[in-house]
TrEMBL record:
<protein>
    <recommendedName>
        <fullName>Triosephosphate isomerase</fullName>
        <ecNumber>5.3.1.1</ecNumber>
    </recommendedName>
</protein>
<dbReference type="GO" id="GO:0016853">
    <property type="term" value="F:isomerase activity"/>
</dbReference>
<keyword id="KW-0413">Isomerase</keyword>
<comment type="pathway">
    <text>Carbohydrate degradation; glycolysis; D-glyceraldehyde 3-phosphate from glycerone phosphate: step 1/1.</text>
</comment>
<dbReference type="InterPro" id="IPR013785">
    <property type="entry name" value="Aldolase_TIM"/>
</dbReference>
<dbReference type="InterPro" id="IPR000652">
    <property type="entry name" value="Triosephosphate_isomerase"/>
</dbReference>
<dbReference type="Pfam" id="PF00121">
    <property type="entry name" value="TIM"/>
</dbReference>
<comment type="pathway">
    <text>Carbohydrate biosynthesis; gluconeogenesis.</text>
</comment>
<comment type="similarity">
    <text>Belongs to the triosephosphate isomerase family.</text>
</comment>
<comment type="subunit">
    <text>Homodimer.</text>
</comment>
<keyword id="KW-0324">Glycolysis</keyword>
<keyword id="KW-0963">Cytoplasm</keyword>
<dbReference type="InterPro" id="IPR035990">
    <property type="entry name" value="TIM_sf"/>
</dbReference>
<keyword id="KW-0312">Gluconeogenesis</keyword>
């Protein structure tokens, strides 16, 4: 188990350009002043829209915050109108890419094969996938673990070596008023961590939880995940700062346990 804890935010398409730039400024100031983010105990990443990537990179320059992208193309170049390649994203400084989110599957028909191709594209260009996996229907934790492990294996079967952030997001919990029960999240996340730890070439990979995650979630999960992947709850920079504080406490507990 890594002592490092990761906290990320996907802005989806909620913010306009001016609102996003103001949010970046608030979060950059907060992250630059947070001891655990500065010294690397807590990884903080932000995933804006494509159009917001460059101003995000500018806003977070000089801070440890990593900027990600919400998607990548399956190919590195060519006649693919409307697509953005992992190669170009890496060129401008993007470090992470969200791959396989349930909304991409539901709204745009992404299949397991497409998810695997995008994960491979990210990794071969030095971008760490934030690989979104989760069961579609509510089920017991053992069944959910088996389902998500199968998704993980499928997505990474032919991918180059590299670090992966496995974002466990039960589809039935995304956008719900409350996250999945803590015991369910814990059992599935531990199974996913065992699986990713056993895969060669995945050193430094973490398992984080999304799906209506917000302040207090890390405390309730009591170390069973390596961090959180936040959505609308982080639109308030103060809420994100609270989660970073929780992450710092978890990172400290892990470091003490490893000593």
């Amino acid at each position: 188990m890594s002592p490092r804890v990761s906290v990320g935010v996907s802005l989806k398409m909620y913010f306009g350009h001016a609102d996003a730039r103001r949010w970046f400024e608030h979060v950059a100031a907060s992250a630059a002043a947070h001891p655990a983010v500065v010294d690397g105990r807590v990884e903080c990443f932000v995933i804006p829209t494509y159009l917001q990537v460059l101003p995000a990179l500018a806003a977070f320059e000089g801070t440890p915050v990593v900027v990600g992208a919400q998607d990548v193309a399956t190919e590195d170049s060519g006649a693919y109108t409307g697509e953005v390649s992992a190669a170009e994203l890496a060129e401008v400084g993007v470090g992470l890419a969200e791959i396989g989110h349930a909304e991409r599957r539901r709204l745009f028909g992404e299949t397991d094969e497409v998810v695997a191709a995008k994960a491979a594209a990210a990794l071969r260009n030095g971008i760490a996938p934030v690989l979104c996996i989760g069961e579609s229907e509510r089920a017991d934790a053992a069944s959910a673990a088996a389902d998500t492990i199968a998704q993980l294996r499928s997505a990474l079967a032919d991918a180059p070596a590299g670090r992966v952030l496995v974002a466990y997001e039960p589809v039935w919990a995304i956008g719900a008023p409350e996250p999945a029960p803590a015991s369910h999240i814990a059992e599935v996340s531990r199974a996913l961590r065992t699986e990713i730890d056993a895969l060669p070439g995945r050193e430094g990979s973490l398992v984080i939880y999304g799906g209506s995650a917000g302040p207090g979630q890390l405390t309730r999960l009591d170390g069973s995940v390596d961090g959180l992947f936040l959505g609308r709850f982080a639109h308030d920079p103060a809420a994100l700062a609270d989660v970073l504080d929780e992450a710092a406490l978890l990172a400290d507990r892990r470091a003490e346990a490893a000593a």
